[in-house]
Amino acid sequence: MKRDFIFGIAAAFALAGLAAGCSTRDTDAGASGTGSLQLKVSATRAEGSAAGTGYDPLTDQQIRIYNNDGKLLRHYTAETLPERLELLNGTYRASVEVGQEEPASFEKRFYVGEEEFAVAAGQTSTVEVKCSRQNVAAEVRLDASVAENFGSTAKVWVAAATTDDYGQLGKGTLDELCYTADAKGYFMLPEGVTTLIYRFEGTHNDPSYGENGLIAKQGVLTGLSTGANCSMTFRFSDDAPGYVEAVTILVDDSADEWEDEIVWTDISITGDGFDAETQQDYIPGKSAAVTYKIANITPIKDVTLYAASKSYDLTGSSYPGITVNKENERTMSVSLSDEFFKAIGGGMQSVRLRVRDTSNGELSRTTPFRVQGLLPVGESDYDLWTNRVTLRALVLDAEAGEVNFTLGDRSLRGTDAGENTYTATFEPEWTQTSNAENPAYPAYYLPVEGTGVFAGRDYTCSATIGGETFTGSFTAAAGQSIPGGDMEGNLSCFTNSNTNSTMWGSGNNNSLKSGLCIKGQKSGMGGSQCAKMTASATLGILAAGNLFTGTFNMSGTTGSVGFGQKYAYTARPTALRFKYHAKVGTVDIQKGYGGPLAKGEQDKSSIYVAIVDWSARRVVSSGTSAPSGTWDPAAQTDLDGSGRIIAYGQLFISQTTEGDAMVEGSIPLRYYFPEEAAPAGNYTLVIACATSAYGDFMNGCSSNELYVDDFEWVY
């Protein structure tokens, strides 16, 4: 119920024609020459109150001109303003007062403002002084119910005073205003006072109310300051004769406007056979429906129920498990049964009913419930690296017996965890698989689909208690991104300086090759760029295009890659997804350094990923001789000098990609150690791409190309 009580007006005064020049004692010493001053005064002016007579504060003005030393030079009123004002050049201050300063008045307002200005010889200076109201404006509104019940006896006294002065209201000892109808008054706050106190008093038409019909209400508005706006609305209803309640105090700091609504309310919300304000237990399948009774002497406008972060409009809509029985426009009941309580879920739940009537009366009643059933699944209930989740249920029925849980199509019997809670923990299942590419390589594990919980996936769950089944669902928290995986921006891998790369690096160098990995564009890429790797050869030495998470150093003709970057895992991925486009030719370089492909055979590009727990990077060096440090994550689970390989995945690309657009690729992760905790070593992530899988051995095709983009985890 916010209102703006202020609108602006402006009056301009051209002050000219003061024949007498200013003497040197009137201005700063050493000033010479005169200039003219045009003064504009603007003040906010509140609209007239209901009791107003059109008082205009601009008819009362005090205008003072001071020099730079604070000495008063000129003093004018609205009647004595000269037609022309000349001042010696210098700096001045204009101080303006508008209106009359009264402690309390229905009409008179008081405004103050000042502004510094400068006058230059031979020029006209214009200064605008903006004046702001110094009074607190207080509007009193009397609802029609006040006149109906109190007639002309209703009065409201308001004063700028403290609560210690309550007893003086209405006795004529305070600077106060007495409101007998809707009106607005203005109050000057005494020094140190930031409150308005008020007292309502009236004699009810029925002497059985109060003391021989006399009903009074007093209150205070706090935190007021100069220029504040207040509005108080008084209403009456006879729910409790003689009892007065201040329902709301609304504050709008942006408008510096306060509203205090004083309502005598008669809305009642009661529990049928229970205390609606104390905790209740509800057991679906056993408990009777919960019924609230609502009554009011004025028509009910709307009823809203709030529970489990949802709202239910009970005025015209229907919902499962909620029955509304409207006896008449003033009386109704709301019943809540099993279907409703099952829908909001088990555990501690707050049910709030809000009732509003046609006279803007409002009442809310909140009942805390303990509801038997499946408890909501939150992030604290699961671990996205171990992929375990614990389901919980609140069991209030001592005769419930066995409690069973399901997650998807998996089921477990619950265990008693105490405090009326049963739990069951679901874990992932793993299938051990032999390496089909090379049976001599270590076996690995893959998660069984439908077991455990993984990031970003949706799950259904249930708990069966005493023959009643409670269902629920949840979405596991989102997974993680791979820094720079979108290949956007000026990544280190696109430069010739990768010695200290913190994520993506490449073999670009200033000695031999600078274009092994550059920014590229390709149809189907995401964003504005992707990574383009291009192979080349110099004097028969193959330089495969490459991109990796790690560092690169060049010494003479030998390049060394330090594989591995630090990555903190909060969720276990099941695959690496990306976009790529490859151009793969036949082998035209074979230096005999251990590469397995003969000239003329089909070359193959490679992309691989490894989750590792290393204390040191794995360094691979290659150049004009056999490489050192090469490793194959499919062939070993540990690297001497580095550490354990937790999981890996590989993709070999032996054919040129069809068409000219990038396609999606995905590499499943094969876990060697599925029970291991998330790696916490110095280096935990390796992703590597090469135009030739055996480029380190100087074995491959010198014209291969490989585009990649948008690396992301699959969970």
CATH architecture field of the largest domain: Sandwich
What percentage of the residues does DSSP assign to strands (E)?
over 45%
How many helices does DSSP assign?
2
Count of individual beta strands: 56
Terminal CA distance: 51 Å
The CATH superfamily of the largest domain is identified as BT2081, beta-jelly-roll domain
Name the poorly predicted regions. 1-32, 45-52, 240-261
Strand count, sense and barrel status of the largest sheet are: 9 strands, antiparallel
| CATH fold group of the largest domain | Jelly Rolls
Number of domains: 5
- Tell the overall outline: flat
| Rounded mean pLDDT score | 88
Percent helix: under 10%
Q: Give the oligomer, counting copies of the same chain as homo and different chains as hetero.
A: single chain
Question: Quick summary of this structure?
Answer:
By secondary structure, this protein is mainly beta. The protein has five domains: 6-133, Immunoglobulin-like; 136-263, Immunoglobulin-like (Sandwich); 268-371, Immunoglobulins (Immunoglobulin-like), CATH 2.60.40.10; 373-475, Beta-1,3-xylanase, CBM31 domain (Immunoglobulin-like), CATH 2.60.40.2450; 492-714, BT2081, beta-jelly-roll domain (Jelly Rolls), CATH 2.60.120.
